[in-house]
Amino acid sequence: MSETLYDRLGGLDGITRLVDDIADAHLNNPIVKTRFEVIEDLDQTKQWLVEFVCAGTGGPQAYTGRDMISTHKGMNISEQEYLAVVDDIMSAMDKNQLSEPVKSEILSIVYSIKEEIIRV
Known about the structure:
This protein has helices at residues 5-8, 11-27, 33-37, 42-56, 68-72, 79-95, 100-112. The chain is an all-alpha fold.
């Protein structure tokens, strides 16, 4: 049996580290940091993102957050902000020394939900 993307990301521990690094990058990115500084419970938001990534990559965790459209509705997220977030995700994956195939798979997932995030 081949390894799932979840396994190749390092399972729950690897995904949690990745999400922490992504959140740190967002909080230091001038294009999107104000969006993340106002989140009332960043730890809960990060937990939902961990669940989302785990569930979406073949892990056993269930995602308990809202769907992407409900989460981003009314935020009027621009293409520039979306691309800044993608850049932060790529940087965090580099920091975590993920392989090129893994980065490509994550990038394809990120782009597959783009229409559920931008200007909804």
